[in-house]
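Q: What does the assembled structure look like for these inputs?
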Amino acid sequence: MKIRWMAVAVASVLAFCLVLAGCGSRDAGETRSPDASGSESKNESTGEVIELTMLSSWSPDTDRGRALHTIVDKFNQENAGKIKVTLDINPDWPSLQEKVKTMIAANQTPDIFNYNFNPNDLSRQQSGKLLDFSPYMDDEWRARFSEQDLQTLTINGELTSIPFEKAGILFYYNKDLFAQAGIREFPKTWDEFFEVCEQLKASGITPISLMTSDDAWHATNALSYFAASLGGTGIFDPGQPLDSPEMVQAAKYLKKLFAYTTPDALGGNYAVSSNHFIVGNTAMIIDGPWLIGSIPKDMWPSIGIAASPTFGDGKVPYGFTVTDTHTPWAAGKQPSKEREEAIVQFMKYMTSEESSKIFTLVGNILLSTKMELTDEEMAQAGPVLGQYIKINSQSTESLVNLVRYLKPAASAKIPSLIEGLVLDEYTPEEFAKQLQEANQ
Amino acid sequence: MTRRQLVMYLFPALSFTAVFFIFPIIFVLYMGVQEWNGLGSFRFVGLDNFYYLLEDPAFRKALVNTVYWILAGILLHTPLGLLLALILFKKPKGWKWFRTLFFLPNVISTTALAFLWYFVLHVSLGLVNNLLKSAGLDSLTRAWLSDPATAVFANMVPFVLYVGFTMVVFLTEMSTISPELYEAADIDGASDVQKDWFITIPLVKNAVAINVIFNTAFCLRMFEYPLLMTGGGPANSSLNLSLYMYREMITANRYGISMAAGILTILIGILAMLAVFGLLRLWERRA
Amino acid sequence: MRGFRWVVMILFSLVTVVPFLWLILASFKTSRELFSAPFKMPERWMWDNYRTVLESHPIPGYFLNSLVIAVLSTVMAIAVATLVAYAFKFTFKFKNGWYGLVTFGIFVPTNAFIVPYYFIVNWVGLYDSLFGVALVYAGVSLPLSIMIIKSYMDSIQKELLEASFIDGAGVHRTFFRIILPLSYPGMSTASIFLMITAWNELLFASLLTQSEATRTLQVAIRFFLTTFSANYPVAFAAMVIAILPTIVIYIFLSDRIIGGLTAGAVK
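A:
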């Protein structure tokens, strides 16, 4: 009897789970775009809502996530009954990128997604599975962007990405901690910079936040700044070797910098590194505008933004910046013209001046779309974002962070190379040489 | 049983095996000699991938570390599980609670445990270092997770300490031992340790076998702890085969190399298992 | 001797409990407190952290997903394993060969198969579905299940089978009426192995799912420490919420769970 009862219980649990599994799986019908050729779309022209899925890492517990959700909700409201955009959030950026690549490979290209543009890794564009926006790029839409950005993103005559985010990376510093160590202003040359580090250290303050895990973001920012200061902003141009004497010198400086950071920087990830700065454990950090969202409001008056030091030898103009790469939006090829047009409409909405202002002011994102901020709006931005926008807009020359240019094999290797450099397993020469080799 | 009936009962298992083992092995063998970035086309490269692996210091370290993990499973984790089982078998006061407690970590996600121990072993915020400091043992503090000498071993700590599952398997087997054997030993005046050594341990051979096999398989696959505690670093010092494969495929987009590493992992897995079986058989013969 | 035993037990208990206590404590702090004074009591007990988590993450949903996958995969694997184990009670040509074929998978590190599994799941159209993940788990754990169940079934005497045949029951009826009930201990042992493995699994769960609707608890926990939202205490609160139901269910069922393992042995 007991066994009978157990069997019934098991059977009902099983049935329950099967039902849930059925509900749990994504409905492959409307929202996926399978093989673009020949498959019918469930959403024909009359009356049915076109559903688009947008993949992003901007989760609603971040400023940029909130901004994105606001824009998407507004769009959905204005287009109720015709187009509905659903956000699919995968908060871990590196794994979202992996996921998107695998989806493209499996003919499941997402409707809308963003990614880090890398001129040395055009696998997405060359897959043939992305929507070409050029036929839809009318003069009005064109005017929203700079010609240079559009050129950069046009591969093989196809404009498969819409320029969106292009963040300058600047030096954040804690004015209170600086004052504590008796430092009056942010150093303009690298010699002064290292002196400042010594002063901070002598006052018991850890000078700078660094990290080597994941993509070693803060460390590669520093490396890029050193390299450009030594070799000019063309140092990472295609064809330039990564084992040049300037790169070796840059590696030496990077190693030197690690003497001024927290003990958990080696092996630390972005959360650890940024938390140290936000909490006041370190005095400086080199990062993009999104960090502002994590800084508590009561700390804003203490935060200063500065441009990078240089060697003062004229190699690079003061005020030059390292930037993140383009983070554009791309779309998968769609089975029907209606869906294509829906996507274009949505993208136009996302890149409108109004939306751009919301993204910038609410989301702390720096965009490549053109935008005029009135004084009022600038004031709304708050002291930190205001400083950031100001210094970024004054940028004299710029180059993209090295990591965004590396082939996947090299970017997979660079964290361990940096760690090896810091641990004395590689000399700076070996570091540069291995990086160059991995990038072949 | 007729042929037809036989096929009916065998069929589901055979199809699962074909889909989840036979096909993938063929796939991996085929892909191991190609070059592929996941989105483009394949390119046959023969044994190049294997040459690359053998020359890559990161792969060699991953190999060595995987062996370390397996040894930790066999020489540390399993004996500790046995120790706890021997203790709880004597049913001290509240033993049921202890049993429940020790099994608990196995039920909780390894992911959460990995994060937890990341913090416990953290160089400045962690429990371990802070405890050492407050005990005046400053000199013993280390950057457990970011020192290449200790990183891989630091990863193993939660695996070695949380032996609840192993312990329960032992306890299960122990409960099948006839109590008369112990009574006879009592009459002979055997001490507890003697009873453990001469009666209990030899009679739990099956459990030892199960645990060693299960833990070896587990260590070959070990993914969460190295990934979340050290990311394979610093400088690849705590990589293992599983993480190496994952990184080559997902981050570096070199599927061919990842699959070649997969083939080598399988071979090592088979070797490890054969070694384990061989040793177990030896032990059985000696007793 | 006695003392030694207690020392060991207490040590292991501390090692098990203290990290969790610290986790719970840390989940009530602010990020600032965590990074400056990780062991002090929080100034204010930040229930806000818990609220943030519950508002922005569908934890019950993740929990349910993990549960569904665990149950489905276990049931499938056990069913298939039991069928096969029954077949092995009879003699037939190359029996050992077939047995080796279906169990050699135990030795194979299946993480070498991430790419082929990914393709299979996609090809059948089960990407990003709970059923797809469950299927893969079932396939991967099948060899171990077969080994466990067969070893329990071996202890069922052949005479019982023969008696049943003599009584006129066919092969199928014998299976359902006689063999199956006697194999429950073995089946429950294997089930526990499988459910726990499926519950804790991270690699395939993150590879084979994409959307939030199919996210499992483990994948969600990994993402709690998102790279941008660098708020560890909130992440800890999420972890506590995620782990708590497991602990509660476990404590209530621990007797049955571990009893199931034990009952299997005492035949």
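Chain A touches chain C through 49 residues (CB under 8 Å).
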